[in-house]
Design brief:
It comes from Croceicoccus mobilis. Belongs to the iron/manganese superoxide dismutase family. It catalyses: 2 superoxide + 2 H(+) = H2O2 + O2. The protein is mainly alpha-helical. The protein has two domains: about 60 residues, Helix Hairpins (Orthogonal Bundle); about 100 residues, Iron/manganese superoxide dismutase, C-terminal domain (minor pseudopilin epsh fold, 3-Layer(bab) Sandwich), CATH 3.55.40.20. It is about 50% helix and about 10% strand. A hairpin with a 5-residue loop joins β1 and β2. About 40% of the residues are buried.
Length: about 210
């Protein structure tokens, strides 16, 4: 059983102009697909051939297998990232809104913190909204292929701050990309589902 390469949850032009169809076609169709293909090639014929992507990530991390970790974690991160955005973004409500207010003071304050963290993140990586075991929210950062698919935090949404996520549309001005995404494209419904479930999102099966 191979790790799936999931379709985008929207049309490739649905996030324009913040993220163009060309960027999504390249980012999803080439970068994400390459990570999935390399993960599948690496586990073929091994004990991990039929494992979930989360298990592959954890085993690669435990074994210090950087190549497998990088490709498997990036496969997971990208699928999570596509779902973290939506062309029809609605404001958070209910338990998630209450948790945001408790941790950050307001949704606007959280958005500003995500933008600041993303703009200040050195080199490649990811910025996350996450919840700990008791439901308290925090903004987290991981470098390169670092992921919250493993570990003690429950990721609710993520922002990709690798250059390939924004360079075609915003050149080297990462703050413009972050502003465009966080002020109109965050999928708060997805974040709310992850918060309410209380466990780490599962990568889609084939």
């Amino acid at each position: 059983m191979a790790i799936a390469f999931p379709d985008l949850p929207y049309a490739d032009d649905a996030l324009a102009p913040a993220i163009s169809a060309t960027t999504l076609q390249t980012h999803h169709g080439k970068h994400h697909k390459a990570y999935v293909d390399k993960t599948n090639a690496a586990v073929e014929g091994t004990d991990l051939a039929d494992a979930s992507l989360e298990t592959i990530i954890a085993e690669a991390d435990s074994a210090g297998n950087a190549g497998l970790f990088n490709n498997s974690a990036q496969s997971w991160n990208h699928a999570f990232y596509w779902n973290s955005m939506s062309p029809s973004s609605a404001a958070p409500s209910g338990e998630l809104a209450a948790a945001i207010d408790a941790a950050f003071g307001s949704v606007d304050a959280l958005v500003e913190k995500l933008q600041t963290a993303g703009a200040g993140h050195f080199a490649s990586g990811w910025v996350w909204l996450a919840a700990d075991a008791d439901g308290k929210l925090s903004v987290e950062e991981t470098h390169d292929a670092g992921t919250l698919a493993i570990g003690g935090k429950n990721p609710l949404l993520t922002l990709d701050v690798w250059e390939h996520a924004y360079y075609l549309d915003h050149k080297n001005v990462r703050p413009d990309y972050l502003k465009a995404v966080t002020t109109g494209l965050i999928n708060w419904d997805f974040a709310a589902e992850n918060y309410a479930r209380g466990t780490i999102w599962s990568y889609p099966s084939a």
